[in-house]
Amino acid sequence: RVLFRSEQTSVAQTSSTNDKLVLRFKHDSWLFVKANGGAVLTSRMVRAGAEESFDVKQGLFVKIGNAADVEAILRGNPLPVVTERDSKVANLNVK
To answer: Is residue 62 helix, strand or coil?
Structure first.
């Protein structure tokens, strides 16, 4: 039974790693993340040097204030963080 649990954990970790959005902050930024189901996952200031990760299985809406130099990785691949024109805010719909 212990071996079976270990195998299940390994499979779960692999699939959850593939469904992650990772954000790395080079500057203090404001972060708002909401699941497509409507639940707010976070709404707060994030300090420079921080890294945040979120499960994207059901999709997310992400709003980043002071988005310059925020690095985003979606399922292991770079995701462009583009600010709105004449703004420091980026809105991402992640699916």
So the answer is: strand
